[in-house]
User: What shape does this take?
Amino acid sequence: MKTAYPERRDSKRRMCVREVYRDDDARIIEGDSRKALADFPDNAFQCCVTSPPYWGLRDYGIDGQIGAENDPDTYIADLVGIFREVRRTLREDGTLWLNIGDSYTSGDRRWRAPDRKNPGRAMSYRPPTPKGLKPKDLIGVPWRLALALQADGWFLRSDIVWNKPNCQPESVKDRPTRAHEYVFLMSKSELYFYDGESIREPSANGNGPKNRRTVWNINTNGFHGAHFAVFPPELVRLCVLAGSKPDGMVLDPFFGSGTVGLVCREHQRRCVGIELNPAYVRIALERINQVHPRLAL
Ligand SMILES: C[S@@+](CC[C@H](N)C(=O)[O-])C[C@H]1O[C@@H](n2cnc3c(N)ncnc32)[C@H](O)[C@@H]1O
Assistant: This one.
């Protein structure tokens, strides 16, 4: 039996936050997640599956975007604030599945030329080399963020390496080509919901499925429509299945083109997506409507 969506905590519509879609299974909110999350009650979501913009890597071209902060400390502080709100809205047994990639200092180049294969990597601004780092340094953003979230109260339960067998080639000559990102599994409490059975993986020796390992080999899917940083559905599927039961409520506060919503529909979960950029909201709407909840059952 489905329960109602969590209601707003107050009836006053906040500036710049509007609900653009709602049915029994999905809800899409256009606006800044910093504002939109405040409208949700405590203990509303079973899990959060999300991928915030990476620091200094892409220009989503909209005021209020996360990732365009001048230094990584401010970026991390902004994300810790947002994920504190996420934690409040999670059930006590809820989890966060956080995908995050790393970046290098710019070496004080102030822009990046468009890349034919990945136009979203063009940047009209690039932040200066952060204090304490040197040109060419790998910043270590994922672990800086994970440790900051742990210090803020999250239980850091697992780092998962998302290995991309089809990663983009790089023209570098003095380091290996980067082929991975992280997914951090974090929980609100010491004991939490985790359905390991649903994501077991085949064993090499033919002894039947084994507990899922921490390295996930999943190809990237390229970009969808005008969105450049789309989750592969298989990555989301593993997080959603392990993090929720059918009918469970899943949150993505950086919804982008709505991959989490799409996967939730396909696996009979309910989903709330929040996205700042109206152009991406439109892509998400189109994609969500391709899978009707009743047909997916
Ligand atoms: C890495 S993308 C997410 C892509 C998504 N997982 C998908 O599969 O399409 C991050 C998204 O966060 C959005 N964003 C940036 N700042 C935001 C904010 N303050 N509130 C809500 N969304 C924001 C960007 O517009 C971008 O679409």
Notes: The domain at 18-296 is CATH 3.40.50.150 (Rossmann fold). The CA atoms of residues 163 and 180 lie 4 Å apart.
